[in-house]
Structure formats: C-alpha cells, structure tokens
Amino acid sequence: MSLLEVTGLGVRSADGRDLISDLSFTVDAGSRFGLIGESGSGKSLTALAIMGLLPPGMTASGSVALDVPGMGRTEIVGARERLLNRLRGRAASVVFQEPLTALDPLMRIGHQVAEPLRRAQGLRGQALREAVTTALEEVRLAEPDRIARAYPHEISGGQRQRVAIAMALACRPALLIADEPTTALDVTVQAEVLALLDGLVSARSMALLFIGHDLAVVSGITDHVLILKDGTAVESGALLDVVNAPRHPYARELVSSARELDAALNGLDGGGRS
Amino acid sequence: MSSPIIEAREVGYAYRRAAPVLTDVSIEITQGRGVALVGESGAGKTTLLRLLLGLATPTTGRILFDGDTLALGDRRRMRSFRRDVQTVFQDPYSSLDPRQSVARIVSEPLRSLGLLRDLPRPGRRAAAGERVAAALRAVGLPEDAAGRYPHEFSGGQRQRVAIARAIVSEPRVLLADEPVSALDVSTRVRIVDLLAELRETRGLTVVMVSHDLAVVAALCPQVAVLERGRVVEQGETAAVLGSPRHAYTRRLVRSVPRLPRPPA
Lengths: 274, 264
Fold this sequence. Notes:
heterodimer, A: alpha/beta, Rossmann fold, six-stranded mixed sheet, four-stranded antiparallel sheet, B: alpha/beta, 22% strand, globular
C-alpha cells in the first residue's frame, strides 16, 4: 500500500459547514505529490488533518492512513494524541509557510533544532551539539555555529525557513509536508529553498506532499498534482497532463491564468528563460 | 520625448540613525511609460515609492514633479500633485476603512482634494455620486457596490474598490505597491488586465513596486532593478528582463518559477 492514503476525507467546522468533502489521494513512498488551490480551498486544512492537528471544534471524517515501514499502518482520523505524537516528526512532519510563527522567538535556534533530535534520537551533551551543527549544515546554512546561537529575529527569512526544514527533517520522516514553504520568501531565496528541498527529498528518498497556490512553483518540484476548490478535488493526475490538458473548467481557468502570466515573460527578449 | 511627470534625481534616503536605504537613485516617469521597481525585500522599493508619492522627503537629491522640486510644505502645489498622482496599496484588506461605505471610500479624494468646491453646494452630492459611479464602472464593479461595505467584497473586488478610489480624481500617474501580490492567481490576472485597460483607455501611467516579474512584464514598459538601495540596471522591460546585463538581474530572472513548456 501507499505511504499515505487519504480516503473520503471530510472536515467539518464547529458550525457544521463542510470545509473539505470526500477528498481522496495517495502518496507513495519516495514520490512527490502537489496539492494546488487558492486561498480557502482547504489545502492547508488537509495538511493539518494528515498530522492530526485540526483546530479545536473541527472534526474529520473518512480515513487518513500512514503506512511507514517499521511503524505499521496507522489511522490518523480519530487517533489518540499519544499515538499521534509518536508519528509526528517520524512518520510525517510539516514545514509551514511562515517560519517566524513556526519558531519560538525567545529560544535560540540551536535549542529549537536540538529538541526533536533529543526527543527522537535520545542525544545528549556534545553528541547533541554536533547533531545540531550537522542538521544546520544539511540545510546549507553557512556558519551553523553562529546560526545556532542566534534568535529567530536575528536571521533572515530564508535562513529561518532553512531552520524550520532542519527541524522537520530531524527525526528522518518518511513523508515531508511542505505547506506553501516559499510563499513568504523573495524569489531568489524561493529558488534556493526549492532547490534545497528538492535535493534533500531525493537524497533521503522521502515522500513529499507539497502544498501551494502557485502552479509554476508546484510544477517545478512535484510529478503528480491534485487541484482543490472549495474543499473538493476538481482534478488530479500526472503533472504534465494537468498542466497541458486540464479538463475541469476551474482547472482550465487556473492553468490559463498561470499561462497568461508565464506568457508575459515569454514576450521578453530571449523568452525570459536562461 | 515628453518631459517626465515625476523624476527622482540622485535621491538618497536614510531612516533616522540608520544606514542609507537608498543611494544615488535616479529614475524618470514619463507619460505613458510606466515603470516597475523590482527587487527583493529590503532593496528600498517601497521607500522609493514613498518618496515618489511625496510621503517623505529624500535625505539627499530631489523629487521633481512636472519639472519643479516637490516641496511637501507647498500646500497648493501638493494638492495638484495629489490629484495627479494617486496610489494603490498591497493589501486590500487593510487599505479600506471597514466602517465606511464604498461610495464614501471612493469619493474621499474628491473631498480631501476639494475637487468639487467650484460647484454650488446643492450640486456637489449629485456630482460626487456621478464621479463615484463612473469610477466603479471603470473598474468593473456593479453600480450597487456604492452602498455596500468592504467586508461584503472578495479580495479582488476590494482591490477594485481601491483602484476606483485612486482613479476618481482622474490622475495621470498611479503608483501601486505590490497591487496584486495578495491576490490569488486568477484574480491577479484580472486585476492586471484591469490596470492594463485603465492604462489604455485613460492614458494612466502605472508605476509599480513588484517582486513578480511576470506582472511587471505584463504592465510596465520600463523597469528599474534595485539591489540594496541602488539601481543596478534600468531601461526597457523587454531588454532588461529579457537579456539582463547585471548579475543580480540575471539571478532574479533565473529564479522566477516557470511552467513546463506546453507541447509543440
């Protein structure tokens, strides 16, 4: 079976509105899956539902199953907190859009990165410090020792997102969920962080669930995509099929909007591609 | 070539007791040749826009409006400047007062700039109503939008309200700070189309701060690339972004995420 199997997932708000209905998709071990939607489409809620992190009052129905080698198959919907805590970080972990809110402003970076390493690998003392340095080096942070001593506000947005990625990867998850990880970043920094994610996911044969609103960004890093609108899947399939021949009217609109902007760049001398 | 409407001449700016955020910046905005200011966070784009908008005075150098140095103290002159140079902000959720009706928001420049003062008092209300209706029509909002409030509109519609407010005084230049970056892609394309249409039909010169090179390419014939407070490259958009000479511009262009090429 697949690493992640979402079957008939529904999420309902406290006042009884359906925020996600009958959503199904699978992510195989080592594969890359993109979830595309505009604001309010339910894509971030899907990530939270997979992690068992839905806000209080929201209820999930259907099934979200994680099948990690060595950990067995686990149903997330309705699971107890203790079981979920064992899965988080190891079976799956998340990188969120805004690294400033993912990091504790009052804690030095080194301590924050150390926490999952201590918890998952039981490291202490010198070994833990070395593991922190290694984790920061793995996300291509130059001067890992300086970064480890810094507070989140003392480093740049791109560096913060690298730290958040280092923390998400600390427990060697089988599935990395990246929820708009580059939306808050400048375009050159975005390109660097995407390249970093791409390399890390390949090197560790992790599966990637990449959530985004920008078709061009998502298409650069995934090979299968699903388009969400108002909590419902309107189209899914191989990336090139969806981008080149969208069938659903909404998918067509999304692709043609993205193409229109892309075409503006094609109009430049040299086609804007280098 | 016509003389510039607004010009920044060797402009520098430093916030209090801080290193300069702009150094020796010179750009010209001429009728019909919209300029995009591109660059990344901290490059000084928004500061430059604030100077061009007359919201701050440069520490060194000058901002010229129709050939004269812009003096923020000269109220009569500033009024004609404000009438000619209007602005749209990034986030339509924070730029519209939630307690005011759309009619009141859009007509605000008419009141603050005293554009209806020459009319007899009884006629002002009707004239304002007509100007608001025309502005709402121009941005593609329904007539009954005037009586509604910002929260009743989506993000894209709110940005249309903000654009209606900006064009109600019939300005020559629209200075927009990331006008579409808070919007979803399909909405973004529609607002870009709207700005392009206003540019064509009203001869509006659109000056825009943006990090989105596709939007820049679609809207502005000129571009100035800023890096750490300096203009590293400027000129025709097609040339600068199409075959960039400066290393930073090249990196910027290369970083733009692209769709897979469509099949031939």
